[in-house]
């Protein structure tokens, strides 16, 4: 059963990201403040939900949230910052995009950088414990999936529509065969050592 609040304050924002472990595409972070009485039977950690259910919930969250923000950290910036810093930067930017200033921040995971002077709490598996983090995980995942499906049209041989940039065998095989694109993260280990290639 997902909880409505950690801190008890009215404007508590939950934040989460998607795409940290991917070889291509952006890290996408989202921040959501839900009304205290928000309830939806489908709401859960996005990883536990089907794509269809996430797509049903996204417009519900966007319509009923008191505020939300979604921020993209594209692959070049992920390479420059490193993936952890990209995630934390994305969460800050997502909070920046909201039209309300939160009183408290709850974060999925165990790492965060202080945001302004707003108190925060990191919560391991927070997306399976708190409604606002679960909602943020759904927005981050659906926005990222949409982006990967769009760039799939440009580079169909990498099967991003299916693998969303994650290191599947199929994705790695395509990298070995066709090389890398402008959307690949050059700082990541794109192939096992025995399949090294020059990424320029």
Q: Structural class, from secondary structure content?
A: alpha/beta
Low-confidence stretches: none
Distance between the termini: 49 Å
Instruction: Let me know the number of strands.
Output: 5
The CATH architecture comes to 2-Layer Sandwich
What count of helical segments does DSSP give? 6
**Main sheet properties:** 5 strands, mixed
Task: Give structural attributes.
Nucleotidyltransferase, domain 5; alpha/beta; 200 residues; 15% strand
What would you note in describing this structure?
- The chain is an alpha/beta fold.
- It has one domain (12-151): Ribonuclease H-like superfamily/Ribonuclease H (Nucleotidyltransferase, domain 5, 2-Layer Sandwich), CATH 3.30.420.10.
- The chain is built from six helices and five strands, in the order ββαβααββααα.
- The chain has a five-stranded mixed β-sheet with strand order 3-2-1-4-5.
- α1 (51-64) packs across α4 (131-152) and α2 (75-81) packs across α3.
What is shown here, in short?
The chain is built from 6 helices and 5 strands. With 200 residues, it is α/β, with parallel strands linked by helices. The relative contact order is 0.22.
Show the helix and strand layout.
Layout: E1 12-18, E2 27-33, H1 51-64, E3 67-73, H2 75-81, H3 83-96, E4 104-108, E5 120-123, H4 131-152, H5 160-163, H6 169-178
Helix pairs in contact: 1-4, 2-3
